[in-house]
Request: fold
Amino acid sequence: MKEVKLETILQVYTDINEVSKDIQALMQAAIEARENAYAPYSKFNVGAAILLDNGEIVIGNNQENACFPSGLCAERTAIYYAGAKFPKAKMLTMAITASSQNQLTDKPIPPCGACRQAIAEYEIKQDLPIEIYFMGAQGKVVKSHSLANLLPLLFESSVL
Ligand code: THU
Reply:
């Protein structure tokens, strides 16, 4: 038996003012998307914005459904939209923000496991890391230099 240690390294910024102007702009696009989320059931709004290598910014937000599992997270809405609209573009950076309608969300909200797996697909496809920045409604912003850094032992197609 040997023990294997898996490490995730994150950069934690005090707030949005500490990240670069470009990332602030991307996060602002995510904040606007978050405001337009359709979340009448959970009352938890999430917005995502993806910067592509062609300069385009693609956004997404969570879209809920009375039949709960039929809804979709913001990150997957955004990444599938990017894949559909700009299939040849590479995804450089994703900004994510979440805000509860019931309480102040002042801690960074990372993408859920299913969204990490979905983002991983595109990171592998394009053979280029996707930087991920995530925050709540205010407060700290966390950066991961890649999706793989957030999802050790991800499932990938080479085993199929
Ligand atoms: N949600 C996201 O949009 N992204 C995540 O990574 C986690 C959760 C949404 C799904 C649902 O509409 C609401 O937040 C509560 O789970």
Observations:
- The radius of gyration is 16 Å.
- DSSP finds three helices and six strands in the chain.
- The first strand starts at residue 10 and ends at 13.
- The helical segments are 21-35, 74-85, 113-126.
